[in-house]
Amino acid sequence: MRPIDAGSVHPLHPLPDVGRTFVGGFESTYHPASGVDALEVTGHVARYDEDLDQLLAGGVRHLRYPLRWHRIEAQPGVFDWDETDRVLGTLRARGAVPIVDLVHHTSYPDWLTDGFRDERFGPAFVRYATAVADRYPWLAAYTLFNEPFATLFLSGHEALWPPYDRGVPGLRRLLLSVLPSLSEAAAYWRTALPDAHHVWVDTAEHHTATGPGVDYAALANDRRHVVLDLALGHDLDLERPFLRELVVDGGEELLTLPPLRVDVLGLDYYCHSEWFYDEHGSHAPSPHPVGMADVVQQYAERYGLPVMLTETNLRGLPSDRISWMRYTLEQYELALSRGVPLHGYCWFPQVDSADWDSLLARAAGRVDPVGVVSLDADGTRRRTEFTDAWERAAAGAPVADLPAVRFQPPCDEQLQGLLPSLAHWPWLDPTPEQTVPALSADLPTGRTGSPDLSDHDLDTREHTMTTLPSSAVPATTEPTQPDLVVLSHLRWPWVWQRPQHIVSRLARQRAEAGARTYVVEEPVVADVDTPRLGTEEVDGITRVWLVMPVADSPTLRSEAHPADRGFEDAAADCYGALLAAMLGERALPPDVWVYTPMAFELAQHLEPGRLVYDVMDDLASFKDAPEGLVLRQRRLLAEADVVFTGGPSLDRSIRKQRTTGVHLFRSGVETEHYAQSRLLRTEHERPVAGYVGVVDERLDLDLLDELAEYLPDWTIRVVGPVAKIDPADLPRRPNIEYPGMARYDELPEVMAGFDVALMPFALNEATRSISPTKTLEYLAAGLPVVSTGVADVIADYADVVCLADDGQQFAAACRRVLLDDPRARDRRARPLQARQEWDHIASSMAGLLDAARSAGAGTRAEETA
C-alpha cells in the first residue's frame, strides 16, 4: 500500500506559529527484552482510530508520532509498511501534521543483538531512515532519534538499558556508533525533503549545587549539552569538563563529525529535570528549581534556534496533572513574554503509558498515570477532569481559568520547591472525588547500588517511576502496612550484599503502601557533647545511627574502624529511647527485622508488631565475636515470628534450636546487573584470576600466596575491603593486586577484567556455614569459578563450580577452566539463577511476613511452646 495521493489531502505546515499551540504525542518505546512496545501494551495499535479521533477533536493538528522500526524491519533489509501507511495516511487525510519519530529510546529491531553498540547499527539505521524518507516524501517534520542524550546516557553510561554499558567509556562507545550514522541520515533527509523541519528532541535539564556538589553540578550542566553540541559542531571547547573527559577517553573522532542541521529544538521538561546537589547527595526534583521558563530560555539562547516544549507530564492524580499543566503553561507564556520563540506545547503522551516501573524491562501492563486520557486495566480509555481541562486549554482558555488544586502525595512532597513561585495561585483543597484510597502493589524490579552521587545521576523522567497497579496514583492518608525497622551490624554504604538487596526491595514495596523503611546501624563515637541520632535518606531507606561522645565509650572496638561501637556498648543504652522518639506514634506497630542478635534488646524496646530474624551468617564463629552473642541468639530465635536462613548448612544449624517458622532462602543474584560484564570484557595482556568480596579471616591467605606462586604468568586480583585482619598479613607478590573496595554498580566492569573467578575460602569455623553470594554473581557474569570445598558450594554448585584444595590444585584448575565451554556452563547455571533472583526472594519473604502478621498474636507463643 502506497501513501495517499497528494491531491486528496490538506496542505501540511511544518510547525505551529510562535505562541501557545498544543501538540499531541504517543508513547511507543520498545524494550528488546520484553518483545512488546508501549503502543501495543496500551492498545493503541488496535485503537489508533479512537485515539486519533479524541486528539483531533480537541483541535490539535500537530502531533509527535512514532514509527516502529522494530516492526517495520523485523528482518534485516525487509520492510513491512502496512501499519505505517495506514496510520500516516489517516493523519494526512485528516489534515494532521505528524512529526514522525524514527527511533524512540531502545526501539530498534531485535536482530541488532548488541543494540546501539552493534557494529550493524549505523548502516542499518541509515538504511531505515533513507527508506522512510523515500516512502513518505510529503512529511513536514521529523525527529530522527528521540532524546539521544538521555537514551545513550541510560544505555551507555548508567547501564540501565541495553547494551548496558557503563561510565564515560560506555557513553563514548555508543556516541561513536550512533552519531556518525545520525549525521549521515540527517544529510539524506535534508536533500530528499528540503522543506521538512528536523525537530531535535532531548531532555531539558538544569543542575545546581552547594558545597561539595558544585563541581559535579558544573560537570552535569556541561554533559547535558554534549550530544547536541557534537552533532552541530557547536562550542567544542576542550576546557569544558565533561567534553574533556569524553575526548581524553578516546573520543577525539567525535570532534570531527559532519555537522547536521536542526530546524527546531524540542525540549522535554519534567519536575525532575532540575537537580540539586549538596552534602547529602543528589535531589530530584530540585528543592530550589529555577523554573521551566528559565531552563527553556537557556537552551534557546545557547543554540539560537526556535524551540518547542515536546514533552511534559506529571505522574499523579488527574487534579495533580491539571495543576502541573497550569504551572507549565504559565511558565511557557512567561518564556514567550521574554522573546523565546516557542512553537508548541506538548503534554506527552496523549494516552497513559505503561511499564515504566521496570524501565520497560518487564511487560507487566502496569499503567503509568501521565496521559491526557487515562487507561483502565482492560485497556478502556477513560476521560477524567484532566481530559476536560486539557481540552479547554488546547482551545485557548486562559491559564488563570484552570483550577489550582493542591498537589496530593507523592506530588506534594516532590514539588515543595515550586510552591514559593506559586504563592499567587488561588489554591483549592482536593475534594473527596479527587482522591483515591491507598492501594497495594506488587514488588517492583528496581535498580540497586551503593549511595554514590553518580549512582543517582539519572537525569531523565524514567528514574522516578513508581509502580502502579491501576490508572491512578495511590494517595496514602494512612499506611496499609507498618513501617519496617532493620537492625543491622553492616553499614548500608559498605559492601552491597544480602541485607541491601532484600531491604531495598522491601522498602519499595512498603513505600507503595505509605510506610517507611529505616536501617538502624551500630553506634559510632565522635566529638559530640551528648548522644544524638544521625540520619541519611538514601536508596529509598532512612539510615539511622547513634553518635556517642568519645568519653562515654573509651574502649576502642576495632583498630580498623576506631569510631565503630556495637549495639551492646553500655554507653548506647539510650539508643532505644531516641529511636522510639524519632519513629513517633504509629497507627501500626513497626515490623522489626534483625541481622545481628546483639540488637535484640534494641528490637524489644521498639515493641515490634512482627519480629524477623534473617540469619545470614554464623556470627558466633567470626573472629572477635562479642560476648553474649550466643545467648542473645537463643532468645531471638525463641521470640522471632519469622526466621530466615541464608544457606543449607546454616539452616540445619538453626533448626536444631528452633523447629517451626524457619525458612531457607539461599543468597540470590541480580542476573541482569552482572550480565553486563559479558559485554564489557576486553582483551588484556595476562590472564587474571580474581576475587570480589570482603577480605577477612574467611579467606585462606596461604592458598592465595601459593596460587600466585604457581601462576607467575597470571595476575591475582583481590577486590574488596580488608576487615578484622591486619593488612600486613596479606600475601605480597608482584602478581597479586589489592585495588580495594568497588561499588556495587562497578562490579560488572570489575568482573569483566577477570578470566577466572576465585572463592579461596579457608575451611574453618568461620566458613563452616557460609553460602557465598558471589557464586551466582560470578556465574551471571559469565565466569568460570574455582572454589575450595565449602559445604554449601559442594551441595548447591558442584556441577558448575570447579573444586580444589590448595594453591597447586587451584592453579591447575584455573588453567583448565579457561578451556571449558561457557555455553554448557551457562545451561547448568541457568536453573540455579532463576530460582534465586533477589526479586523473587524478597517478594517471597514479604509474603511469609504478611502470613505471620495475619496469623495473629498467638502465633509466636505457639511456635515457641
UniProtKB/TrEMBL annotation:
Gene Ontology process terms (BP): carbohydrate metabolic process
Highest taxon, organism lineage: Bacteria
Classification via Pfam families: Glyco_trans_1_4
Region called Disordered, residue ranges: 433-458
Molecular function terms, GO-annotated: hydrolase activity, hydrolyzing O-glycosyl compounds
SUPFAM superfamilies: (Trans)glycosidases (SSF51445), UDP-Glycosyltransferase/glycogen phosphorylase (SSF53756)
Secretion signal, residue range per the UniProt entry: none
PANTHER family according to UniProt: ALPHA-L-IDURONIDASE, BETA-XYLOSIDASE-LIKE PROTEIN-RELATED
Protein name stated in the entry: Glycosyl hydrolase family 1
Organism: Cellulomonas cellasea DSM 20118
